User: Which sequence fits this backbone?
């Protein structure tokens, strides 16, 4: 039983990281309707910034997280302005290939700046966990990750539900032309969404690397793809969906690694996704929109 | 002019065949006179494999309109079954050429089977959901292949599925004359490199003939109708699933043959080669070459494979330059303002949509 709970804790903490990334993904997808493959690489940049601030400048962890958030937010807005905005009217494939180009660019830029050798990331949190929790493999990082994930989800629910900007975002994701006619500045709203998504990516990057400390230019790609899977799993565009999808994906992955096979863990995660999409084509929490003539 | 060449589309296809044959003759001539740098000469067979991959993916993405992000998976299936076929027949069929043809056929058949099985669930979806599920299948195939251990001796082919990661080649229980072909995570090692540039050229021609004839046929018109408007196509009695499936399976078979060609051109090949990045690489060829435009796919696949090799002197910066070029090309060809600007400079250029329609 203890062993099972330990695996569950592992799954929950990894799942929370996926959930944070998936929340960013789902926000961007909901409004821009694009598979932003560069999202995973923004995570990696965030982790590198945090690494530099703590290791080279010797500043405290909180400052490094703030620096990562600021840099990634600016980066997200820049990417949107330079690469995606000129393609607002273009087809989805053109945008997809551009996103892949941005992803290559970020990975190779990171390799030029920081080199291909993996950096050893020191965890940003290091407080003592009570002994009874430690028995279940609960680490400081996993506690912080789960709490951060819950706080972020609640904040996003409040933001999209109650604030003026959040309402504008929902309007834009429903119908951009109609939103514009209602006096919403669509371009600013999209920029704002990318800013939020990238800020979340920065936080996720720091937490991801605190959890598994190997930091290299490709660190973000696989978690990025998995988090996207999580977002689709929960119903893309839905905030609670991304949260539940992320947590479930983390738990399924941990259980598959523990009880079936380490080398097939990703396959099992993807197989579950396929089954879910066949039974519920719009994901667990997604709205099914029938095709109209 | 013969009767069949009066059709503009047929003429267009024959020009494509002619250009490919011409390119083959020129490259062979250059090769015979040692005019090709060694770096690129080694890439000739992979380039042929990439060209076939681009043509086959273009059938799914450009002609059938389904975005597939897992095409490397079919290449992987074809590569490994092709390697096993070629290696296990080493004694029975001593002729390299015939053995390669058998390997290509085996690779194509097994990839087509995989395409059919995967197509059943995948083609129930569309759009981004279809894309993410093909991505998922691509990753699954990659991991499953990583778990395979295959060997051959005089009693036949032996295979193990290495679920726990603890099994090794010794667990196959091969006799003394037997040898391992696929060694799990290490991939295939010690493969005889029987692929040749001529075989690659023939495969490109076969792929072109198959795809162009399919597109021009009644079936091809049905596939185009499904791409352009699924509901309208359904309302005139076209079975959308059936025609998308035809495109998907033909494409998978060609990808499998390309994989077999690719696999048999390297002495060492690990399964991680056929990952998500490979699928994306092929998709970039297709999109930059033009959706539905087979000639464009061929040019893009060849140029974009040679370009990074040619840029090797800028070693560290070449992928960065590649990424920037990719973004700029996408923006320049898809942004309305820029497109108008270009059309003012080159007034007679047809728009991209018209090109797609004319070529497809």
Assistant:
């Amino acid at each position: 039983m203890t062993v099972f709970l330990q695996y569950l804790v592992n799954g929950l903490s990894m799942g929370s990281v996926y959930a944070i990334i998936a929340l960013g993904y789902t926000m961007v997808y909901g409004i821009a309707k694009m598979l932003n493959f560069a999202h995973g690489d923004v995570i990696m940049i965030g982790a590198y910034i945090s690494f530099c601030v703590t290791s080279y400048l010797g500043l405290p962890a909180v400052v490094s997280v703030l620096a990562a958030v600021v840099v990634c937010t600016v980066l997200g807005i820049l990417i949107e302005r330079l690469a995606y905005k000129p393609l607002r009217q273009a087809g989805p494939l053109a945008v997809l290939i551009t996103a892949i180009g941005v992803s290559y660019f970020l990975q190779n830029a990171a390799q030029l700046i920081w080199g291909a050798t993996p950096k050893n990331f020191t965890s940003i949190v290091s407080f003592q966990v009570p002994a009874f929790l430690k028995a279940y493999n609960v680490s400081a990082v996993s506690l912080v990750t789960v709490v951060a994930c819950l706080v972020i989800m609640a904040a996003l629910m409040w933001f999209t539900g109650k604030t003026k900007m959040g309402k504008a975002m929902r309007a834009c994701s429903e119908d951009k032309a109609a939103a514009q006619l209602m006096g919403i500045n669509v371009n600013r709203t999209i920029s704002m969404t990318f800013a939020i998504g990238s800020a979340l990516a920065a936080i996720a990057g720091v937490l991801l690397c605190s959890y598994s400390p190997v930091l290299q230019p490709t660190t973000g790609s696989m978690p990025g793809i998995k988090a996207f899977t999580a977002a689709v799993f929960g119903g893309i565009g839905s905030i609670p969906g991304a949260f539940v999808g992320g947590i479930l994906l983390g738990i399924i992955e941990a259980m598959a690694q523990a009880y079936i096979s380490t080398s097939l863990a990703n396959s099992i995660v993807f197989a579950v996704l396929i089954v879910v999409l066949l039974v519920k084509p719009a994901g667990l929490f997604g709205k099914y929109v029938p095709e109209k003539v | 002019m013969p009767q069949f060449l009066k059709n503009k589309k047929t003429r267009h296809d024959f020009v494509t065949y002619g250009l490919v044959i011409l390119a083959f003759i020129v490259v062979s001539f250059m090769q015979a006179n040692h005019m090709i740098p060694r770096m690129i000469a080694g890439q000739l067979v992979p380039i042929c494999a990439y060209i076939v991959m681009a043509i086959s993916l273009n059938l799914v993405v450009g002609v059938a309109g389904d975005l597939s992000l897992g095409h490397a998976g079919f290449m992987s299936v074809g590569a490994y079954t092709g390697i096993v076929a070629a290696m296990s027949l080493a004694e029975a069929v001593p002729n390299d050429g015939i053995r390669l043809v058998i390997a290509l056929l085996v690779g194509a058949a097994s990839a087509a089977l995989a395409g059919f099985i995967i197509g059943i669930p995948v083609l129930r979806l569309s759009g981004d959901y279809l894309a993410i599920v093909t991505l998922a299948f691509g990753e699954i195939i990659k991991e499953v292949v990583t778990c395979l251990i295959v060997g051959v001796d005089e009693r036949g082919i032996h295979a193990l599925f290495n679920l726990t990661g603890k099994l090794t080649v010794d667990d196959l229980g091969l006799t003394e004359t037997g040898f391992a072909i696929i060694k799990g995570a290490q991939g295939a090692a010690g493969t005889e490199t029987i692929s040749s540039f001529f075989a690659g050229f023939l495969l490109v021609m076969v792929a072109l003939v198959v795809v162009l004839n399919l597109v021009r046929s009644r079936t091809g018109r049905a596939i185009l109708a499904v791409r352009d408007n699924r509901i309208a196509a359904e309302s005139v009695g076209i079975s959308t699933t059936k025609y998308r499936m035809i495109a998907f399976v033909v494409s998978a078979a060609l990808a499998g043959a390309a994989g077999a060609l690719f696999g048999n051109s390297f002495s060492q090949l690990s399964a991680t080669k056929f990952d998500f990045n490979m699928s994306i690489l092929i998709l970039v060829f297709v999109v930059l070459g033009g959706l539905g435009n087979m000639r464009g796919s061929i040019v893009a696949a060849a140029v974009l494979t040679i370009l990074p090799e040619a840029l090797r002197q800028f070693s560290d910066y070449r992928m960065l330059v590649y990424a920037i070029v990719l973004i700029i090309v996408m923006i320049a060809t898809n942004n309305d303002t820029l497109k108008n600007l270009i059309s003012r400079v080159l007034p007679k250029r047809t728009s991209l949509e018209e090109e797609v329609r004319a070529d497809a």
Chain B is about 65% helix and 5% strand. The longest strand of chain B covers residues 148-153. Strands of chain B lie at 148-153, 156-161, 179-183, 188-189, 268-269. The domain at 3-274 of chain B is CATH 1.10.3470 (ABC transporter involved in vitamin B12 uptake, BtuC).
